[in-house]
Specification:
The chain is an alpha+beta fold. The protein has 1 helix and 2 strands. The longest helix is centred in the first third of the chain and has 14 residues.
Length: 68
């Protein structure tokens, strides 16, 4: 078998890996989350008690729920 296809593939792979364009580095963005109240709801899953302070926000029909 001739090594040409393997060498051609290796050369294409090497050229594809060389990127001459510089990409902007991403800046970390900070978010201003809206203030909201905590309304704790407690559930038991397989003997483990879990408290969710913000479950009431899952109901989109709540007039107090802040919209993005």
């Amino acid at each position: 078998m001739k090594p040409y296809p393997i060498l051609l593939f290796a050369a294409c792979l090497a050229v594809a890996g060389c990127d001459s364009q510089s990409r902007p580095t991403g800046q970390a963005t900070s978010f201003a989350y809206p203030k909201t109240s905590e309304r704790p709801v407690t559930d038991a899953y397989f003997g483990l008690t879990v408290t969710d302070n913000y479950r009431w926000l899952e109901a989109m029909n709540q007039p107090e729920a802040p919209l993005p």
